[in-house]
Amino acid sequence: MKTEKRHKDIDREQPIDINPDLIRDDARDVGAAFMRESAPRFDADREWQRFLSLRPEAACDIQEEPSPSPRATFRWLYAFGGAVAGIAACLIILFSLGFFTKPEIPQEEDLVLFAAVKQDDRITMTSSTPTAETSKPKTHTAPQKNVETADKPVYLDTEVLDMRKVSVTSVFEERTVTTPRGKRIRIILADGTEVTLNGESSLRFPARFVSDRRTVNLEGEAYFAVAHDENHPFIVISDKISTTALGTEFDVRAYNRADVRVSLLSGKVLVLDMTDKSSVTLDPGQDVTLKGGKLVVSNINNRELDAWRDGFFYFDNVPLIDVMIELGRWYNVNVGLSDRTLMSYRLHFVADRNEPVESIVESLNTFGTLNVTFDGTNIRISPTK
User: Fold this and answer.
1) CB atoms < 10 A from the CB of 234, how many?
2) Beta-sheet pairing, 378-383 with 334-337
3) How far apart are the C-alpha atoms of 28 and 358, rounded to whole Å?
4) Highest mean pLDDT among 42-51, 67-76, 107-116
5) pLDDT of 14 over the 50 cut
6) Which residue, 179, 254, 213, is CA-closest to 187?
7) Could you tell me the pLDDT band of residue 150, with boundaries at 50, 70 and 90?
């Protein structure tokens, strides 16, 4: 079948190499972007036949009648002429009274894939000192929330925050770094662990690690390159999921309960669902997601994780909806889909995150199958006519 062949073509597709220098020098070149359609085009004739099959009475509206005699024809024409004259008179009256107006056909509203929010476009950092009760060494538990009022936020105008060079007032002091949509920052923690914090994310961490566990709390997405210390496990708490590592590189994504994922690039990590206490151990090249409240392990393409950390969008055979949600989050714009049949599309797409949204829209339009518009606030996707 054609669909099967199309999928085979995708499977044979060679992965897209990420070369930052080449892509940055030619980020507007859409030759690196291409798309595949995973479902056949809408067949109007077939849908019409299906409609008729569901409405058998429609076929009864057309029937062959026996040929009438000349006399019967004359009587029919005479009666028909009188009927036409009467109908014409009625139509004139109805039109004059405004009975016949063009009916308004309700337009199907766009499916909203992502919604923009009002935000401060600056990266912020706050500091807080836990109370005496919560300043005890942390164990493998959910995030602590009983803290004193945090200091006023400090706005960070830097690409790298090195906590090893930041002075602290207490060994129990905690810092929280928050990124808006469209911004990311690299944080070097006190132990040397490097964290790349994605847009619309927040990381809370001790200014100095003083307990037997190095525990941080994440909302959103971050890439961790953990400094090895077998005596002090590194633990990431995110939306009821904890990830434990000794020295490794992994990505944690937890924008909401329905979007929880841990991906491992090197080493080993233990992922624990703190709701039902189930756990899995990941090997390099695997990730785990929450599906139906269960931990599900699958294989991954590491290039996607490397790409966002290096400042690129990388989508390899990804559903259109997932692509547009990611673009909406990064650029903080509304995204709408005019035709639900487009939900079956999948994209192969690479782009520089530093490019303006207008350039991304222009690249998507070069595929020739999508009509993507941007009015300064809203991205709208519809099929080409």
Assistant:
1) 25
2) parallel
3) 11
4) 107-116
5) no
6) 179
7) low
